Amino acid sequence: MTAVNPRTPRVEVFSTTYCGWCRLAEELLARHGVRFVTIDVTGDREARASLAERADGRRTVPVVFVDGRAIGGYEELAQLVASGKLDHLKAQRHAA
User: Fold this and answer.
1) d(CA 21, CA 56)
2) Residue 49 — φ and ψ, nearest 5°?
3) Are 39 and 12 in contact (CB under 8 A)?
4) Which superfamily does CATH assign the domain made up of 11-94 to?
5) pLDDT tens-place string over residues 45-90
6) What angle do helix axes 74-83 and 20-31 make, rounded to 10 degrees?
7) What are the sequence ranges of the domains in the chain?
8) Three-class DSSP category at 61
9) How far apart are CA 26 and CA 61, in angstroms?
């Protein structure tokens, strides 16, 4: 089991198996070295309901959460990259 830095932001991506934008979001995170957990809501009504509850009613995917807060989908994630804020998540991950 890998030890996790307590300051490591928890990044979750709600997605489906058939969503191209979901794959792009996951690839973007991976390319920038950000660890994340994928939550597949394909055909899973309970998981989709959980997504809607956590994301203020939003049911579309992808939805990216950082430390439990929905930041949006792929476009919002790409904006974080463009602004350099995604690097901040990566830097926190490596902080001692």
Assistant:
1) 20
2) -65, -40
3) yes
4) Glutaredoxin (3.40.30.10)
5) 999 999 999 999 998 999 999 989 999 999 999 998 889 887 766 6
6) 20
7) 11-94
8) coil
9) 12
